[in-house]
């Protein structure tokens, strides 16, 4: 499904972008996201609960994360992630009574400034994040389609991410943590399938080691908004 297979070929791709596989932080994405555990958390904004997330492991390699309002939990939305060798891939998500299957047509990897980009895949699910966290930041760019399985409608998307290495982090509720940061920009043509993709979201998310997602969220577009985690648990 990929132009470049995982393993030694991936090492070669990373070497061309200045991100050798050996230059890792010693941590992995599972320690931060808690993707493999029945883990959950709540984040607050403006002095009240703004949302909740929960991971639901489906197998040894597959997990689904839901985001929603704790007052109406569980939500009908869930993103499906699969660990595939050196990567965590995004297969798609469920919502509105259907599944949206995500497949890329082009993926690139580069340095933390999104420079020195190299194409490393042209098909398959999206390479979302590296499992072993590099000691330096890296950029991922993806373009592809979302197929609404109930109707066959095809939505085009573009997704840029910059992942930063572990660094100290705190919020107003929890101090003294270590986080990785994800900056992302999401574009699609939902609502006008014949038109070009347009920007729908720009944000930072900080993910805390041994705690999980949404330690801090700073959204820049379509409007400025901030939230911070206040509680984490297992279920």
Can you give me a brief rundown of this structure?
This protein has one domain (8-234). Helix content is 6%, strand content 60%.
The low-confidence runs, each spanning 5 or more residues with pLDDT under 50, are 1-22
Order of helices and strands: HEHEEEEEEEEEEEEEEE
User: Which class do the helix and strand fractions yield?
Assistant: mainly beta
Report the strand count: 16
Measured between the Cα atoms of the first and last residue, the distance is: 35 Å
Strand arrangement within the widest β-sheet reads: 2-3-4-5-6-7-11-12-13-14-15-16
Count of individual helical segments: 2
Fraction in beta strands: over 45%
Helical content (DSSP H or I, runs of 4+) = under 10%
* Average pLDDT rating: 92
The dominant shape is globular
Q: How would you characterize the largest beta sheet?
A: 12 strands, antiparallel, barrel
Q: How many separate domains make up the residues?
A: 1
- What is the CA-atom radius of gyration, in angstroms? 17 Å
What oligomeric state best describes the polypeptide chains here? single chain
